[in-house]
Amino acid sequence: MPYVKIEVTREGVTRKQKQELIKGVTDLITTVLNKDPHLTHVVIQEVNLDDWGYAGEQTSVLREQGITADRH
Amino acid sequence: MPYVKIEVTREGVTRKQKQELIKGVTDLITTVLNKDPHLTHVVIQEVNLDDWGYAGEQTSVLREQGITADRH
Amino acid sequence: MPYVKIEVTREGVTRKQKQELIKGVTDLITTVLNKDPHLTHVVIQEVNLDDWGYAGEQTSVLREQGITADRH
Amino acid sequence: MPYVKIEVTREGVTRKQKQELIKGVTDLITTVLNKDPHLTHVVIQEVNLDDWGYAGEQTSVLREQGITADRH
Amino acid sequence: MPYVKIEVTREGVTRKQKQELIKGVTDLITTVLNKDPHLTHVVIQEVNLDDWGYAGEQTSVLREQGITADRH
Amino acid sequence: MPYVKIEVTREGVTRKQKQELIKGVTDLITTVLNKDPHLTHVVIQEVNLDDWGYAGEQTSVLREQGITADRH
């Protein structure tokens, strides 16, 4: 009976990326925990940049300063 | 001091249905746990169909295939 | 596809009370939203009195002062 | 590694107020727990008045009755 | 800035399985969303069988009836 | 009607520190949003080090490597 919530900043996540996250997380749980995927629910919640704070700053401010969350 | 979060797919839940959920959950907690309803908060969160995954699939895809969550 | 989280202070909630909450919430959602109960998950999370704050005070302190959350 | 979620009713919270909440919570955790702020994330979630229930009533109904959540 | 919460029933999940879930989810998000893993936090929350309800029943009752969540 | 959840790793947070967090967050919300503190609930959730992942690693492993979350 797993339930997974994925919270990410709202920065153009596509429908296809969401599908990959849902499929990937469900497969991972099925493999690692041997769970029936029909009991696994995954919810993605996108959060506006003004609403996500990191190190005391709004992400929207960080982005204006050119600071991204991209992998280097 | 109860707090309740209800997450449902966004599929036309009406204002009246939300009121019934809020009233029903609060009454249930008042009855079962003998809690003062003024200390009970209920939050409903609707989730877009692209953002809710079940069995590894987006709910939006399941709906396109004619698969609903309706009671039979 | 509903998921419900019920957070309550840890103050002797019995197994039977939990069952009544789970049954009651699931029945409510089935009735109000016409959802298949096999897609409804309910999670109860008990919170220690030191960890739940109300009006700026720990619930454990409120209880020591004789202030309960009981219905009057 | 702290993560903080702040849920409030959607009633005109400004960008500046959000920044004050994010800055204030992060500073508080840094001071009280001595945590590196680069490991602290704060997420604000605004909830529509129809979706927040208090004492069994939708907040939107309470507001129509002139009942606010303002400090007196 | 992703944050992921994984809720599972407390049924003997090992430290190694938790590590696989944390590593797997972080890698997935890094790959799909191109996020810096140093901004990804994953929290696993185990839930007692009495506290997880499915289809209106406590999971502990389902397990007593021989009903598992295992993949077939 | 604010509700705040604070999740931190379980690393010896004292009762006094929890009280400071609860008091501090409630005061902050009262000041910034002008909310009645009797409508503000704060829940602290401590998470075991094996259950909190950062950058793909369990925090328990990071601690064994001498990596802390302390402010420098």
Automatic annotation (TrEMBL), chains A, B, C, D, E, F:
Molecular function per GO: isomerase activity
Highest taxon in the source lineage: Bacteria
Primary enzyme class: isomerase
Residues annotated as domain 4-oxalocrotonate tautomerase-like: 2-58
Active site: 2 (proton acceptor)
Keyword field contains rRNA-binding: no
Entry's EC annotation: 5.3.2.-
Keywords of the record: Isomerase
Pfam families according to UniProt: Tautomerase
PANTHER family to which the protein is assigned, alphabetical: 2-HYDROXYMUCONATE TAUTOMERASE, TAUTOMERASE-RELATED
Family: Belongs to the 4-oxalocrotonate tautomerase family.
Protein name (database record): Tautomerase
Species assigned in the record: Spirosoma aureum
